[in-house]
Design brief:
four-stranded antiparallel β-sheet; alpha/beta; six-stranded mixed β-sheet; single chain; 230 residues; Rossmann fold
């Protein structure tokens, strides 16, 4: 689903990513962990085509996204990548239903089709009775579920989540984590999640550790002869 080779990214004189090689399979739920400043969010934004790397290659579902011009790249991003952020990023003047429909509006799909899809997603999220409520009328957990539904609107190949449960209490956090795996199991959805939440990282299929711009393999999972040399 996602193939990264030799990804490098600098901001001025600061080299953030120093040659990242990573493959993520369809239907995987992958977490990216590491200390602050390690390059986790930068890597996620490159996968999401929001940043362009200084070097390396990136293929998503077989498409060389770095070869696309800006218009085609924006269209690819809207159709194939969904985003979930820590603080929801819902538009306050729109209802839950309207917020979910936004990616489809950008893709110029018909209003009737969008409304039906959004209603189905609200039902899947258990929020069918909240369709006409605005974000300030929803709880934090409900807002984040609306944000996940919005990310799913165009049936993207992959969902990218940046600290998605960071602003939630323990109950809503557990429900959100469970939702990710339900979506993977029912829809075959691929998730790449940047998180500091150890409980979430332990639940995922695979955890990618990033330290100082490199992917690091923890000594505990290295072959014994390699671990002894660290």
């Amino acid at each position: 689903m996602i193939e990264l080779h030799g990804i490098r990214k600098s901001f001025g004189t600061l080299e953030v990513l120093k040659g990242i090689d990573l493959n993520i399979e369809k239907g995987e739920v992958v977490s990216i962990v590491g200390p602050s400043g390690a390059g986790k969010t930068t890597l996620l934004q490159i996968i999401g085509t929001l940043y362009k790397p200084d070097a390396g290659s990136l293929l998503i579902n077989g498409t060389d996204v770095l070869a696309l011009n800006s218009r085609k790249l924006a269209d690819f991003r809207n159709r194939h990548i969904g985003f979930v952020f820590q603080f929801h990023q819902l538009l306050p003047e729109f209802t839950a239903l309207e917020n979910i429909m936004i990616p489809g509006m950008i893709a110029r799909r018909s209003h009737g089709e969008l409304r039906q899809r959004a209603l189905e997603l609200l039902q899947f999220m258990g929020l069918q009775d909240r369709a006409e409520h605005k974000p300030n009328e929803l709880s934090g957990g409900e807002q984040q579920r609306v944000a996940v539904a919005r990310a799913l609107m165009n049936q993207p190949d992959v969902i990218l989540a940046d600290e998605p449960s960071g602003s939630l209490d323990s109950h809503n956090k557990a429900e959100l984590h469970q939702l990710f795996f339900e979506l993977r199991d029912k829809l075959g959805q691929t998730f790449v999640i940047v998180t500091h939440d150890e409980e979430l990282a332990q639940l995922t299929d695979r955890t990618i550790h990033i330290i100082d711009g490199h992917i690091s393999v923890p000594p505990s999972i290295l072959p014994e002869n390699e671990a002894s040399t660290i």
